Amino acid sequence: MSELAIGRQRELKENTRTSGLLVRLVQVSWRNVWRNRRRTLLTAGGIIFAVWLLVFMRSFQAGVFAEMTDISARAMPGHTQIQHSLYKEEPQMEHTVNESLAESRLVQTDRFEFVSARLQGSAILSVGDKSTAGMVLGVEPEVETQWSGLARDVKTGAYLVGGGEAVIGEVMARNLGAKLGDDLIMLGTAKNGGIAAHAGRIVGILRTGVSEVDRTLVQIPIADFREAWSMEAEDAHMVVGVSTTLLASEYGTQLARDDQGPGAEFSHLAWQDLLPEMVQMTEMKDVGTQVMFYFICIIIGFSVINAFMMLIYERTNEMGVLLALGMRPHQLLIQFQIEAFFISSLGLVLGFAFTLITLWPLKEFGIVFPESLLENYPPDFATKFPERLYPAFNWESARIATVVIMLGVQFAALIPSLRIFRLRPVEAIRAEN
Question: Which of 278, 273, 123, 110 is nearest to 200 (CA)?
């Protein structure tokens, strides 16, 4: 037999021996995990609590913030907007997009339930001998009525229906001494640099609870705005899209951005760009939850170090015998690492199971929103919140929990296990536990 064949046989035998030893180590490790059930269950219990804390809290926050973001988006900006690439930085009258082209880009993604065009500009507003400055917003009444929170905020009168009408904020109406049926005179600068003049009959007075909106906003039909401000028939400063869910809008915005068709000057703004304060609040809450999670993980790490230190002291005689019989220190180290893996896996599986058990009923039936939490908010703002909140399972937090706990437990178990390399078989066998 050639030397090559002999070498292959030896390699095969070595691989077979190694795989057999690994299987045996796994079996022994599983039995050792349950030699002290109380210690194993206490360590796994800490992991269960850490998993539940992160995943449940992040899932609850995700559901609450999604509801709050949806309410804020439907109040005015929408879930996404298409604008001229320069309009956000320079909101000038001439920075417009083609309405039909922009709408088709959102509609073809099949992700937006409502799509509407808007035009806006500043103006001097007058009723009788009183005047004030404000912002005039040209909208499509038939579309805005179906999704806009502003349309539902009309407290006196009705929302826009036809041409020649106007809806103003409650504070503006009080400052101007205006009432339903009065003519609101609007004077601004047209797109061509001339004077834009329009008179609209006040048909509705809205109250949003946001003083800036109630003090400055006027809504008129977009056709009236185009005529008064000398705009083209297809001009729009923004095309707004609203989806059934925030997730659908995010995906739809990405699809619209990826469209390589006409409209290279378009700027696609997702709700994160339109509502930066909501993003900041969400990030702050997430940071707080993660800090608490990592703090608990540190406590779990110390408990794992303590548990494995006790294991090593209790099984010193046993390890001395194994070392005397020919087992190598690194093989014992592998055994302890396998035991740590079993404990962390047990905690993660039970933790996710407990989290799902507590989340599922809440996801199906919701949580009654406590009215006491809204006492510091304006009454008009508080009434926009739903009666129930529905958590949404947060997969990102589940991945973070799995990675952090798995690596943390393995590292924590490794620290006391390094003592194995300092053991002497004879001394270990004679050691008193």
Answer: 123
| Rounded Cα–Cα distance for residues 275 and 368 (Å) | 26
Burial of 260 (0-12, 13-18, 19+ CB in 10 A): exposed
The residue-averaged pLDDT of 305-311 equals: 84
pLDDT tens digits, residue range 28-58? Answer: 888 888 888 888 888 888 889 888 888 888 8
* Burial (Cβ within 10 Å: 0-12, 13-18, ≥19) of residue 361: exposed
Rounded distance between C-alpha atoms, residue 406 and residue 243, angstroms: 38
Nearest residue to 383 via CA among 62, 155, 187: 155
| Residue whose pair of structure tokens reads 């095309």 in the numeric block | 239
CA dist., res. 161 & res. 179, Å (int): 18
Q: Report the alpha-carbon distance of residue 26 to residue 31 in Å, rounded.
A: 9
- Above pLDDT 70, what percent of the chain? 89
Taking CA atoms, 37 is separated from 32, 42, 45, 292, in Å, by 10, 8, 12, 28
Q: Per-residue pLDDT tens for 117-146?
A: 999 999 999 998 999 999 999 999 999 999
CA 16 vs. chain centroid, Å, equals 49
Nearest to 182 by CA among 137, 121, 130, 124: 130
Rounded CA separation 415/304 (Å) = 10
Predicted model pTM: 0.71
Determine the residue type at 86: L
> What does the H/E/C string look like for 373-399?
HHCCCCHHHHCCCCCEECCCCCHHHHH
Contact yes or no for 87/283 (Cβ under 8 A): no
What's the mean pLDDT in 64-74?
A: 84
